[in-house]
Amino acid sequence: MAYKPGTLGELRALLAAELKELDSPLLEADLILAHYAGKGRAWVHAHLPDAAPAAVAEAALSACDRRKAREPLQYILGCCDFDGLSLLVEAGCLVPRPETELLVECAAANFDGGAFLDWGTGTGCVALALLNRFPNARALMVEKNPASLNCARRNLEKFGFSPRARLIASEAPEDIPDCEVSLVVSNPPYVPSDEIERLMPEVSRYEPRLALDGGPDGLEPYRWLFELCGRVLRPGGFFCVEYGGGAQTAALRALAPKAFRETVLLRDIAGCDRVIGWRFADVLPQ
Q1: DSSP E strands: which ranges in 72-206?
Q2: CB within 8 A of 42, min separation 6: which ones?
Q3: Distance separating alpha carbons of residues 128 and 165, to the nearest angstrom
Q4: 177 vs 192: CA distance, rounded Å
Q5: Counting beta carbons within 10 angstroms of the beta carbon of residue 140, is it exposed (0 to 12), middle (13 to 18) or buried (19 or more)?
Q6: Would you say residue 283 has pLDDT above 90?
Q7: Contact between residue 231 and residue 240 where contact means Cβ atoms under 8 Å apart
Q8: Neighbour count for residue 30 (Cβ, 10 Å)
Q9: 118-148 pLDDT, tens digit each
């Protein structure tokens, strides 16, 4: 795009105009400028009359071109805020969503602070949030996507959590070693296969299909997650998942074995069912 050196405010206005098709062009312009200036959004607003540093302008314009193509902003900036942590995010990984913080809240409220298993850890966002909240917790972080495993490893190193976590490359539940945990938490793929192409371009074009595709009904992972929980979850332990809401609520309830007693159902900010949790019974009901 054509750009003449000018003020930070003029550069911000240009970026916002180029990103006008997005929901929040000014916000995205602010985030891009703040990132490449190494400052916060408040700094950007306080320095709008000042000359835009050449290096910041060059990087911001390049980022803007990528964002216009609907590449996720988190991929472009290489980071994402999640539960108070600034996580590394790389292309080929599922971008952490704000609604997944609801899953963290559910897990944290039902966790004794011991050992837990995070299936489909992705960037590690859920496990990292729990490790950050519970200083004595230990995590088994399970993932099959090599790009996500690498990103999760880097995030563990960034926050110094590596000694309390084990990453497991797994293609199937059988790959997960025998263990006993008090919590199993998961944000599995839950989009029905034929709905993926209808998702927003940032998702359908860029994010890994294996992190999205939950099979024909979006429920495929949950079927064997219950089986996994029956093997690794201690009696009295807790199992919670994020899911797509709607008709999946009744379907998940029907899938749950009798040993699992539903105790939690949380809705997201839009009022949609988003997180459900079960207590694993000590004794099967008669």
Answers
A1: 79-82, 85-88, 115-119, 138-143, 165-169, 181-186
A2: none
A3: 9
A4: 29
A5: buried
A6: no
A7: no
A8: 19
A9: 999 999 999 999 999 999 999 999 999 999 9
